[in-house]
Design a protein that fits this description.
By secondary structure, the chain is of the alpha+beta class. Helices cover 52% and strands 18% of the residues. The protein is built from 22 helices and 22 strands. It is found in: Cell membrane; Membrane. This is Heavy metal translocating P-type ATPase.
């Protein structure tokens, strides 16, 4: 017998450089900006001790620090045939160097490159928004042909095909049940926390979870036509839409660059012929104009304020993915909330129970919990949890457990046979008698009811409800003080939505909302209010989160929602929304203040330069001084 050889993998010489390559790929722009700034600082410090030829460090700072922005500016100009701020900054820095002010040009490049690197980090997050969604889409399905099952790709499924879906599997395509019954968790699509019973003839949605039944399904739609696929498309299309502020900035940049370059070109020649300036004075004034008119102060008026606000928010449990989102939040006039998992805790809890069994409450709860403990249904889990809180006794042994999908569970404890579930499981006369005897304990229709019966008699009732989060009411009250209208979007029926509205204080609600309905609702609200935010936690909320002016996700929510949202509430505290609104409005106020001051300073420096009162050193002091002032003003947001 031939001995099996052990093959050793030949070391890859490039493998040792992989970490460096990955580091440069992910953080190269920031590393280059910081390196350029460090070289500028070193050159300045060494110049103080009169080290010879130290100016040679400045060209190196220019090349390293400005590489990414220069490349971006050139590439964008070639594509759009439009000049941009990146090229203006590089030109201004070169102009400063041409008249001997290397350090000022290096500082301009450093500040602009650093802000650009940080902006890149905030925008890169959105590229991963679809990855979490795709993980929930099944890749294969069990196709049934001639009583034989074949594993095929989901993309090849055709309407009319029959597929087999086992318990614990995600449903691969929209369809109708041909055979079998089950309970389906549709939270990914509707947001409803309570699983839905499905029997022959009822429809199923792709991406939802089959819990406890084996069913044969007739496919009604191709994979790319399913509701799940539509969610992917909605997220993609909504993310491509740019915010109005972003569009305005892009238009302003093009106009500003053209004006500055045109003014510089005019200054290079016009004063010599019109006012008799010497060529040396004319060129000197043109270079001073190019330096003082560079948008360094304008960039600094925004970036430090944004970064400070984002840092403060992070310390307070508010993860903000970019300054544009925080700025947009300041303009929001209405906020829409998903219900399940956002305004509520997302799982049912027992709020009360009635015991007419003749046993004491602890024994009654223990026996019911013993039966429900054999079921994986969320309502059963809630009852077991409730019993554990109110009875320290160990659960008795239960036997003959039979789960009836969509209705409840049967089981035996000792010599007692129990039926636990919906009213449809109960004998009508026994249910009427129980209701008559317990009329004073009448339960609101918005609550979920689980009955207990034995020997043909209803002996108990559990009422369950998805509880409001502790922070919901306080959050709604704070938002109202800011003049923000609040709306609840939910897949629940009208009664449940009305009950939650009364309990939470939300201004209005829209019930029976599927994912596409939430997007339509956000669009209509945007038409009415102008700027609307959306708060959600699940995959069903991702299209609306992407469509809204600002999307906010709960930190414990679905990964897709976290990736799609612009702001994440890390501690699931809705009251942080009001704090984020306050922070955004303060940030917008400071940015407007800084921008006005920066533009006024540029106008002043341009005027005194044209009057020949401004020298290059004082021009740099005025320009960089205004930059430092707006930076310090923006840093005030570090304290909130």
């Amino acid at each position: 017998m031939m001995q099996e050889a052990n093959l050793a993998q030949t070391p890859n010489r490039n493998h040792s450089f992989e970490p460096i390559h990955r580091l440069w790929k992910n953080h190269g722009e920031l590393i280059a900006a910081l390196t350029g700034g460090a070289l500028t600082l070193v050159a300045y410090l060494l110049s103080l001790v009169s080290v010879p030829n130290i100016w040679l460090l400045y060209p190196l700072a220019y090349i390293i620090g400005g590489f990414f922005k220069a490349r971006e500016g050139i590439t964008d100009t070639v594509k759009t045939h439009q000049l941009n701020v990146e090229l203006l900054m590089v030109t201004a820095a070169i102009g400063a160097a041409c008249i001997g002010h290397w350090m000022e040009g290096a500082i301009l490049i450093f500040i602009f490159a650093l802000s650009g690197a940080l902006e890149t980090y905030s925008t890169a997050k959105s590229t991963n928004a679809l990855s979490s969604l795709m993980e929930l889409q099944p890749e294969v399905a069990r196709l049934v042909t001639n009583n034989q099952e074949h594993i095929i790709s989901v993309t090849t499924i055709q309407p009319g095909d029959t597929i087999h879906v086992m318990p614990g599997e995600r449903i691969p395509a929209d369809g109708v049940i041909l055979k079998g019954e089950t309970t389906v968790n549709e939270a990914t699509m509707t947001g409803e926390s309570v699983p839905v019973y499905k029997k022959k003839g009822t429809s199923l949605m792709a991406g939802t979870m089959n819990i406890d039944g084996s069913v044969f399904v007739r496919v009604t739609k191709k994979s790319h036509d399913s509701l799940f696929s539509k969610i992917l498309e909605l997220v993609q299309s909504a993310q491509k839409e740019k915010a109005p502020t972003q569009l305005f900035i892009e238009r302003f940049e093009r106009t500003y660059v053209k004006i500055v370059l045109l003014a510089t070109a005019v200054m290079l020649f016009a004063p010599h012929f019109l006012f008799g300036w010497s060529w040396s004075d004319t060129i000197y004034r043109a270079m001073v104009l190019l330096v003082v008119a560079s948008p360094c102060a304008l960039v600094a008026s925004t970036t430090p304020a944004v970064l400070s606000a984002v840092a403060y928010g992070a310390r307070r449990g508010i993860l903000i993915k970019g300054g544009v989102h925080l700025e947009q939040l300041a303009t929001v006039k209405a906020i829409a909330f998903d219900k399940t998992g956002t305004m509520t805790k997302g799982s049912p809890e027992v709020v009360s129970f009635i015991n007419c069994s003749g046993r004491d409450d602890k024994t009654f709860l223990a026996e019911i919990a013993a039966v429900e403990n054999q079921s994986s249904h969320p309502l059963g889990t809630a009852i077991v949890t409730f019993a554990a809180k109110h009875s320290a006794a160990a659960l008795p042994s239960a036997s003959n457990i039979k789960v009836i999908p969509g209705f409840g569970v049967k089981g035996t404890v000792g010599e007692t046979d129990y039926q636990i579930g919906k009213r449809q499981m109960m004998d009508r006369d026994a249910l009427d008698q129980f209701t008559k005897e317990n009329r004073s304990s009448e339960i609101d229709e918005s609550q979920t009811l689980v009955y207990v019966a034995t020997a043909g008699k209803v002996i108990g009732l559990f009422t369950l409800k998805d509880q409001i989060r502790e922070s919901t009411v306080a959050a709604i009250e704070k938002l109202k003080k800011f003049g923000i209208h609040t709306i609840m979007l939910t897949g629940d029926h009208e009664k449940t939505a009305e009950a939650i509205q009364n309990e939470s204080g939300v201004d209005s609600y829209i019930a029976n909302c599927l994912p596409e309905n939430k997007v339509i609702a956000i669009k209509k609200l945007s038409e009415h209010y102008g700027s609307v935010a959306m708060v959600g936690d699940g995959i069903n909320d991702t299209p609306a989160l992407a469509q809204a002016s600002v999307g906010l996700a709960m930190g414990a929510g679905n990964d897709a929602a976290l990736e799609t949202a612009d702001i994440v509430l890390m501690k699931n505290d809705l009251s942080k929304i009001a704090e984020a609104v306050r922070l955004s409005r303060k940030m917008s106020k400071i940015i407007k203040m800084n921008s006005t001051f920066a533009l006024a300073m540029i106008a002043f420096l341009l005027a005194v330069n044209f009057l020949q009162f401004l020298t290059m050193p004082f021009g740099v002091i005025g320009h960089e001084g205004s930059t430092i002032l707006v930076i310090l003003n923006g840093l005030r947001l570090l304290r909130g």
